[in-house]
């Protein structure tokens, strides 16, 4: 008895709804020779990006083109030699045919072109009281023989001459020959011997300094290093002091226009008709400082020796530090209008001081012109309808400006009007006439109840 009998199902077998699909047989690929199993599993049989070489090809012998190569001991000559010396060396011979041509290393034989001179050229251009013609000929022969190796030339030279003397004579003769043989001086102006002539004194000094440096002891080297460190510290301290001084000068220069403006404002306030006669008097100018150490910038006082033009530039910069670029250009334009040089051609001590003083005066003049324009614009904007008649005294800025004019014959309330006029008056220093004497006070009446 099985489950079908319990459920009352027929014992016929069920039709298979899912038939087993036959598996497709994959094409079995054989692992190629020369490829490891791991590499083949990673690539999956794909062709590699870099073409691989079969190991069997590495074991093959190269196929020769039927060439028979031998090495033979053969003679050779070199064009670099002038004595036709014949030497031997091993040579690779192909099919019994030896190589032809010049020696392969002859191309490295480079010779220096040495100029030759004639008797006439020597007598005309190359004579020197310190050198004879025989010594000059020996020098050029040795230079050609040893390819301008002047140390060797000095060793082989018969007379006692230094390397610097030999160089100086050789380059002087070569330079004179180039200039003499050229059609014009411009044709050889770019030649190194003409453009940069040999400096005998500089070469001697260079070797002397080099010898002194190389012969120093360890103690001297440490001392030089300490001197350099101290010099660096002094330079840095001077730079810091100069920056602080320039900042202080700029701060002081910025205060000068403010002081000038305040003084001009006080002068305008104190103007009165009675003082018009004094306005024509020339202003008192403080005496210009004579040329002394005070005119020299402090950054240059520490130096005992300095260029006057450098001091002049710093003095001009300090004098015009408060002015802008446009004002500085106007100062220079004013100098040109006065037929003065922007910088003196003969910068002596007195000339530099006077030039700086002239610049300061021009700067002051420009500031006063600017303030005058400002005052005129302010006055025209304050009372546009006011027209000043000639001969009319100027009114003071305070006291009389807004006070109405009342004649003496008109009075309101007896002495009360005088008191009101007296109250309206400004302080006595702004009045044109002295104040009237005080009037006697009369006792005030008591107010009654009816009044």
From TrEMBL:
<feature type="region of interest" description="Disordered">
    <location>
        <begin position="251"/>
        <end position="285"/>
    </location>
</feature>
<dbReference type="Pfam" id="PF16282">
    <property type="entry name" value="SANT_DAMP1_like"/>
</dbReference>
<dbReference type="InterPro" id="IPR009057">
    <property type="entry name" value="Homeodomain-like_sf"/>
</dbReference>
<dbReference type="GO" id="GO:0000122">
    <property type="term" value="P:negative regulation of transcription by RNA polymerase II"/>
</dbReference>
<keyword id="KW-0156">Chromatin regulator</keyword>
<dbReference type="InterPro" id="IPR032563">
    <property type="entry name" value="DAMP1_SANT-like"/>
</dbReference>
<dbReference type="GO" id="GO:0006338">
    <property type="term" value="P:chromatin remodeling"/>
</dbReference>
<feature type="compositionally biased region" description="Basic and acidic residues">
    <location>
        <begin position="18"/>
        <end position="36"/>
    </location>
</feature>
<keyword id="KW-0804">Transcription</keyword>
<dbReference type="InterPro" id="IPR027109">
    <property type="entry name" value="Swc4/Dmap1"/>
</dbReference>
<dbReference type="InterPro" id="IPR001005">
    <property type="entry name" value="SANT/Myb"/>
</dbReference>
<feature type="domain" description="Myb-like">
    <location>
        <begin position="127"/>
        <end position="176"/>
    </location>
</feature>
<feature type="compositionally biased region" description="Low complexity">
    <location>
        <begin position="263"/>
        <end position="282"/>
    </location>
</feature>
<feature type="region of interest" description="Disordered">
    <location>
        <begin position="376"/>
        <end position="451"/>
    </location>
</feature>
<keyword id="KW-0805">Transcription regulation</keyword>
<protein>
    <recommendedName>
        <fullName>Myb-like domain-containing protein</fullName>
    </recommendedName>
</protein>
<feature type="compositionally biased region" description="Basic residues">
    <location>
        <begin position="441"/>
        <end position="451"/>
    </location>
</feature>
<dbReference type="GO" id="GO:0003714">
    <property type="term" value="F:transcription corepressor activity"/>
</dbReference>
<keyword id="KW-0539">Nucleus</keyword>
<dbReference type="GO" id="GO:0000812">
    <property type="term" value="C:Swr1 complex"/>
</dbReference>
<dbReference type="GO" id="GO:0006281">
    <property type="term" value="P:DNA repair"/>
</dbReference>
<feature type="region of interest" description="Disordered">
    <location>
        <begin position="1"/>
        <end position="36"/>
    </location>
</feature>
<dbReference type="GO" id="GO:0035267">
    <property type="term" value="C:NuA4 histone acetyltransferase complex"/>
</dbReference>
